[in-house]
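Researcher: Next entry in the queue.
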Amino acid sequence: MRELDIEISEIKNIKKAKVSIPLNRGIYGIIGNNGTGKSTIMTCLAQAVFSHSLNALREEDISEESYVLLSDGEKTAKWFRQGDKWKTVEKPRERVHYDGMYEGSLFYGTRFNDSKIVDDLLATSQIHDEDIVAADDYVKDNLSYILHGNYNFYRMLKRIRNKQIAANLELENTPYFQEYRGKLISQYRMSSGECLLVSLLHFIYNAIVRRSLPQDKPIIMLIDEIELALHPIAVVRLLDLLCELIEQHHNLVVILSSHSPEVIRTIQPNNLFQIELSKREEGLVEVNTPCYPSYAIRDVYMHDGFDFVVLVEDYLAKNIVQTIIDEKDISRSKLINILPVGGWSNVLNLQHELYIHSTFGAGTKIFSILDGDIQKDVGQQYKEYPKLFIPIGSIEKFLKKVLITEVDTQIKKEINDKFFYVKSIDNLIAEYIKTNKKKDEDGKELYKIIRADFEKRSIAEMTFVEGICKIAKKYIDFSKFETNLEKFLKNE
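Model: Structure for this entry, 492 residues:
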């Protein structure tokens, strides 16, 4: 599976960062708190789309050691500052480059210059009637619906007729205008949300819907912190549109940066990359993926009124625990909420926070369920908090164990027969062994290959996880765990 790898050194508050984004179709999220470097990472990623992105950085943002290294396994580009420009030694054909676009709530560079030129052109009446034309219905309809929930608000939206006229007017882009009381107001004088969406929809319609860009390479759309420009309902509507586009176009890759709950809840945990500044070394960026919404946004305030809150690592553990609760009818007369949080350290950190801040009050009991293979790693730090250990690792570790390191022929055959009737699981394992050059102790690289295959055949990840849960329950002894879980939930 192709990935876009980026390494950032000495830019703004980032001393060192490494991030790998899959280039499979989908929506991916760069998430994290303010000041963790999300927008800086997006600016550096955008260098793979257009080579002037790094010019947005100021002198105080960089040093002599600053660089951005981009690689996709086939091509590389290392960008460094020389004088007042960013340069790379790689020739254009050797550089990492993809078609796409980059949008943010703020604009600069050519769009900033265009805004001043358009103001002057309108003030001196140099934009004539024959220079403009009604905007395409696709842009008007979606702009109206996303921002206002109807299709009529921007019926008077217009744009420069074509690129040639824009060039004659010394414009780098193709600006839009809203007619108001017989006068034209440029998109640069509209709200930040309107301006962002107009440019975004213009690209979507012309490059993606009308398929003007090549279909044999990924098209990358980078959108930086859309919640700064759009209200929450508009964010949800835009995400709905992007999800539709992903379904219709096999080569579309959308990368969003955000700390919006609406965005984070929409994106699959495997596609979320949580950015955190290391507590061990100043300026070192750590990436947490997969990242579950409950951990990323601490959305536990939505779950008040439960008798028990059970924190687990992933959806496989959640499915197994829920299955046991249902089979043994443990939930009778009690409300139980199971929250997947991510790795075991995330689970314990969140459990600690919930206790410290008494988030649920005295009536709710909180305990964690961790993968059995890390029991020795937990240590003494959180020993006072109630926890259980489940006799199975995360779905990534479980699959690597039964398919690679300790092959279980029965489980392997059942997984193959149930899900891999087109390309066999052996073919995927061979692909993994051939292409995987990274350390993969946790099985995440193997799972990426497996997930890419079943998603290509429109099998939802939750369907796959539920199937693996049923298979695991057949072959693994959960009896001791079931007894302990029942005791926990019955307060014995």
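Model: The mean pLDDT is 88.
Researcher: Noted, moving on.
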